[in-house]
Amino acid sequence: MDPNGTGDPILTYRELLARTPSPLALYLIDDRPDHPQSVSWLVKTDHSTINTLGPSPRIEFRLGALQVKTVLVIVFLIRLQHTEIIFESWINGHNQSQDGLRVIHLLQEQPFLTIHFFNEDTIEQRAIRVDNPSPLFFQQCADQILHGAPWTMKDFDQAKENVNDAYPSPLILWNALHSPLPST
Question: Residue 59: helix, strand or coil by DSSP?
Fold first, then answer.
């Protein structure tokens, strides 16, 4: 059961990947004791999309920090070359377990990201390591979160819903955010 007392069972990332349709992107903190802590992204899409990536795929990122009342909604968008698929990942700097703020702190120091691509059968088909698109962005987010008032998960969910109402598709949000940040 959830240690935060909500009564919801804790899902492993594989269970979450299996239960959620693609396109899906979520972050994961690698906490292995023999490995430096780092943030990776897990991306679920169909195997044919993964197969078209080629040896040196171009991956674009767009990052957004959207202030909705007192809540800072951080969105991390990923788009693969030759596709119109946009993967969304949301970061809550004040979530109950505080891993959102930890992710932001790690990303401001981490020079690279690993993106693990899972197919529709939740089998990891490929992993690609790319440069971190913007450590400075994550530093600015951390500063804003640490100097602002905390919010609840309910506040974050409402703020995210407001963002989704304002930008009703990933493509509309993609186009509204600043210029693409290509991987190198």
Answer: strand
Give the chain's length. Answer: 184
Bridge-based pairing of strands 24-30 and 86-92 is: unpaired
pTM above 0.70, yes or no: yes
- Give the structural domain span for 31: 13-179
Identify whether 160 is part of a domain.
yes
Per-residue pLDDT tens digits for 73-99: 999 999 987 678 899 999 999 886 678
Q: What is the DSSP string of 62-99?
A: EEEEEEETTEEEEEEEEEETT---EEEEEEETT-TTSH
Q: How many domains, the chain? A: 1
Is residue 6 situated within a structural domain?
no
Rounded CA-CA distance 91/105 in Å is 12
Summarised one tens digit per residue, pLDDT across range 41-63 is 999 999 998 988 888 888 999 99
Q: Is residue 3, in this structure, part of any structural domain at all?
A: no
Identify the pLDDT of residue 17.
85
Alpha carbons 105 and 143: distance in angstroms, whole number: 10
Q: Which of 142, 51, 55 is nearest to 93 (CA)?
A: 142
